[in-house]
């Protein structure tokens, strides 16, 4: 499949990996919008947020624990951070493999 994130997961193209768990991999965004910008990506190729409901409860718990772990490791948990998912055309989803952005390390503007 021609998916850049599947290739990162398979180790076929390099990325700065910050964490790996049973169901997810987290790596630094190649074009960061803030001092800390990490992407959390399910190892299974899902496209949209709604497909996460196919994951079992422990995998969903793992996701939120991982986001929290990364925010703490990046030292942005206290100062504040944003986690977001772009879904589909209007949100400007570029990579059609579901990913959670974790963004912090500076004062963030309003979403819009
Ligand atoms: P989207 O707009 O789909 O939510 O965000 C895709 C994100 O993936 C962008 O922030 C972009 O910089 C990042 N990205 C795209 N290709 C690569 C890549 O090959 N490696 C890494 N590390 N990040 C990428
Ligand atoms: Zn993929």
Task: Write out key terms for the chains shown.
5-stranded antiparallel β-sheet, HIT family, subunit A, HIT-like, 22% strand, 24% helix, globular, binds guanosine-5'-monophosphate, 3 helices, 112 residues, HIT-like protein, alpha+beta, binds zinc ion
What's the short version?
With 112 residues, the chain is α+β, with helices and mostly antiparallel strands. Helices cover 24% and strands 22% of the residues. It has helices at 4-9, 57-73, 88-91; strands at 17-20, 24-28, 36-42, 81-84, 100-104.
Q: In percent terms, what proportion of residues is strand?
A: 15-25%
Terminal CA distance reads: 32 Å
CATH topology: HIT family, subunit A
Largest sheet: 5 strands, antiparallel
Read across the widest sheet, the strand sequence of neighbours is 1-2-3-5-4
Radius of gyration: 14 Å
**What is the β-strand count?**
5
Pfam family, one: HIT
GO molecular function: catalytic activity
Motif (Histidine triad motif): 97-101
Active site: 99 (tele-amp-histidine intermediate)
């Amino acid at each position: 499949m021609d998916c850049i994130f599947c290739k990162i997961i398979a180790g076929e193209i390099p990325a700065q990996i910050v964490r790996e768990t049973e169901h997810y991999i987290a790596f630094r965004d190649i074009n960061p919008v803030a001092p800390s910008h990490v992407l959390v990506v399910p190892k299974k190729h899902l496209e949209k947020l709604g497909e996460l409901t196919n994951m079992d409860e422990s995998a969903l718990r793992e996701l939120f624990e991982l986001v929290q772990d990364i925010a703490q490791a990046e030292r942005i948990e206290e100062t504040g951070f944003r986690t977001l998912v772009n879904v589909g055309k209007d949100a400007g989803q570029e990579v059609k493999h579901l990913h959670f952005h974790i963004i912090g390390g500076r004062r963030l503007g309003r979403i819009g």
